[in-house]
Amino acid sequence: MQAFTDRIAHWAQVQTDTLAVNDGGQSLSFGQLHARAREIAWQLQILGVAPRDRVMILLPKSADAVAAIVGVLLTGATYVPIDTSSPKPRLQSILEDCKATVLIVNQQTMDWFPAQTRLNIAAAPSASLVEAEFPVPDMNADAYVLYTSGSTGVPNGVQISQRAMHSFFHAVNCYMGIDHRARCMNTSALYFDVSIADLLLPLYQGASVWLGPSIPLPFRFIDIITSNRITHFCAVGSTLTMLAGMPDFSDHQWSDLRCIMTGAEVLNPNSIASWLRNSPNAIVLNGYGPTETTCVCTVFEINQERLRGYSTFPIGKPLPGIGVFIDTQVTDDTDCGELCISGAQVMTGYLKRATLNDMRLFVHEGDTFYRTGDKVRYNQHGELIFLGRIDDQVKINSYRIDLGEVVTPFRNTPGIEDAIAVPLKHPERGECLGVVVKLKTATDLLALKNRCNDVLPAYMRAAFVAEVGSLPLSPSGKVNVRKLRAIASAHFNAIEAEVSRLDDTIKEQEC
Known about the structure:
Layout (H helix, E strand, L loop, with lengths): L3 H11 L4 E4 L4 E3 H17 L7 E4 L5 H12 L3 E4 L6 H11 L3 E4 L12 E3 L21 E7 L7 E6 H15 L6 E4 L8 H10 L3 E4 L6 H10 L4 E3 L2 H8 L14 E5 L5 H10 L4 E6 L9 E5 L1 H6 L7 E2 L4 E5 L9 E6 L6 E2 L3 H7 E4 L2 E12 L5 E6 L3 E4 L2 E4 H9 L4 E11 L3 E10 L5 H9 L8 E7 L12 H14 L8 H8 L1
Parallel strand pairs: 1-10, 3-4, 3-5, 5-6, 9-10, 9-11, 11-12, 12-13, 25-26
Antiparallel strand pairs: 1-2, 7-8, 8-18, 13-14, 14-15, 16-17, 17-20, 19-20, 20-21, 22-23, 24-25
């Protein structure tokens, strides 16, 4: 198993001038990427970065950010990519949690955390690279830490080792088929686990990567696919549907396209059919996998024949090296249960979360499994069918969100007795979140929403906040979330007001 940085060095030698990454404004060949990464690694070492340290990357998606990732890995350290649009308090909590030795910044982010040791990505090398020596890669060390939504109100750092990342590369590429001739489009953010599949995997294989915009811009995506004769890309289901809905979509014929990896959402069969019609040589892979299993860990291949055989698509079968165990004890139905995953792709653990690790990682028949929280069953073909969640996590616009983190700032506000977050489907806003609060004292709900949203990343923010006099309860005395969600959905879909009361509606439902 060859290390990621060794592969970049290899491609820099055998195809020096081949494009490695293009961000729309800057291009780096493999030779340039390797040289730039070595410069960054050398500067990091001068600043004291050692193997197994953590380095936070405070950069927007760019060729420079890609070089920074490779540079961090060259030092044997762990990279921690950050959403630079997140509120500063959240970034501060991540910084304190990961104890980054150095922050890699640009002019925009240079002054965000002045007390920390920083490396400006634009800085010139401070010493001769002739003296640079980099450690032998340790496959058991963490390659990166990605922060995900947490039930306690603070994000959790998922630790993925070099070994897990490389196991994923080899396993998923059995289906994707990326090689040094491939031309790939990256659609994901660098702090999102899909970037391991649509950025690092292609570079590992010597392929060229065009970075798509951080915001899904349909015309830009189509232009990248067409102009650069893209062969492989990853995109969530809603993005594929958005692109397939463009007026001139059917005018395109992408004969170069070989593979589309999708997932994270229930797929629209009509949009998948459109992509297969326009890309006669391509397959569509419905991939499934939480961040804690590196990325995709099960896959279902969709072709023209399977379009006719399935009304909804399974999440398929495990990748090579992945073990699956369905724990039926967590449900009342012996035909389904919680999906548990084992294998080299499983995370090292959550950083500094011993209790959470004990809850989510367990040993079964000698193998360590991760509890996904997802309910599944097998169909008659032995393929896994996704049935939903068994906990408070939800998917909103492809982001996995723990509702506990959404409501924490509301519950921590004086005058709020309780707060419940509910996922909604609004006719104008699409998938969004609403928060229903029970008040102790009179509160300006619009100000409350704005104040609480200010400490949450954009994808976790409540679109609506409403007050209730009482929360609907189940016979056991717990909040009846299903009833509350139905009430909230009906209310928010009917009224566009930011602030409203649900008391009468709830009383009618409880009578």
